[in-house]
Amino acid sequence: KDIHLENLENPERTYMLHLCLAAAAWTSELANDAASSPRVLVTGATGRTGSALYLQLKADSRIAEVRALVRNVTKARELLGCKACDESEGVFVGDVTKPETLTAASTGIDTVAIAAAVGGGASQKEMRAVEFDGVEHQVAALAQQNARALPSLRVVLCSSMGTTDPKPAPFKGGSVLFWKLNAEAFLLGSGVGSTIVKPCGLSSGEAGMHGLGVSHNDDLPSPGTFLVARADVARVMREAVIERSAGLRFGLCNDPGAKVPADLPKLLQEARWPWQAR
After folding, report:
1. Which end of the chain is more exposed for a tag (fewer CB within 10 A), N or C?
2. pTM greater than 0.70 (yes/no)
């Protein structure tokens, strides 16, 4: 509608007009975002789950751009199929514990898929640096390097089941779960739309060979089944990237009674709490 001069002479009307215009612009940005193809950065891209996710995203025509954050170019060349393995191919050398190394990789994207994690034998200092501080750094880089409304940005985090146990045994994950839980809490309060995938015991193997189930509160979808293939975790994360899902936090494990291969959009819908699935 036309903006009449008398509206601008009234401070209260002027203020409300600015609010309406800002809300309209914000709504328009979210609508455009929902219709656009994701531009995604995979961190931890040379890890076993991260490399599977990177390759699946690269092979999916629904993704506009896929970047990788790596620490070792030689390893990237072996696992990711890159040649130059530099920024010209979307491969960025960086470290999630060093925020200054995340700037270039995070500029111009709308999604971060976090697969960076510590390996066995990590110290408490290393656990915090990667699993908690590192997640904060990655979310900050995404938010600060992109002039978009926070709710239009996305983070898909690979965490772990077991975080409800205050004293988890080493074979269940041990003390690293404390830092993973803190990262989850930070992400949920960051203002960025997020999906948190919490797999049970990780295994090797091809994707799509087992039925998958989702759960909450560390309940197993199928009692007595404790494993899920990394490649299937990557498939679920890829689907979350494509759907631009948000407000999800769920456990993921094999379910012998579920459909093979899993119907991924349906699985993400089942991952919602009953009051979300409306």
Report:
1. N
2. yes
Identity of the amino acid at 4: H
pLDDT at 1: 45
Q: Given a cut of 60, is residue 14 above it in pLDDT? A: no
Question: Torsion over CA of 201, 206, 209 and 215, rounded to 10 degrees?
Answer: 30
- The secondary structure of 23-59, three-state, reads HHHHHHHHHHHHHCCCEEEEECCCCHHHHHHHHHHHC
Measured between alpha carbons, how far is 180 from 158 in angstroms, rounded to an integer?
9
* Contact yes or no for 126/96 (Cβ under 8 A): no
Contact 268, 243 (CB under 8 A): yes
Q: Which two tokens stand for residue 40?
A: 């995604």
Query: Residue 19: what pLDDT?
Result: 52
Residue 84 tokens read as 């130059």
Amino acid letter for position 261: P
Higher-pLDDT residue of 150, 26: 150
The residue whose two tokens read 């690269």 is 58
Residue pointed to by tokens 């750094």: 137
- The answer to whether 149 and 123 have CB atoms below 8 angstroms apart is no
Angle, helix 134-144 to helix 176-188, in steps of 10 degrees: 20
CA distance linking residue 209 with residue 235, whole number of Å: 12
Q: Does the N-terminal peptide bond of residue 151 adopt cis geometry, omega within 30 degrees of 0?
A: no
What are the C-alpha distances in Å from 57 to residues 45, 77, 208? 11, 17, 16
Mean pLDDT value of segment 185-205: 97
Three-class DSSP category at 156: strand
Closest CA to 109 of 173, 179, 192: 192
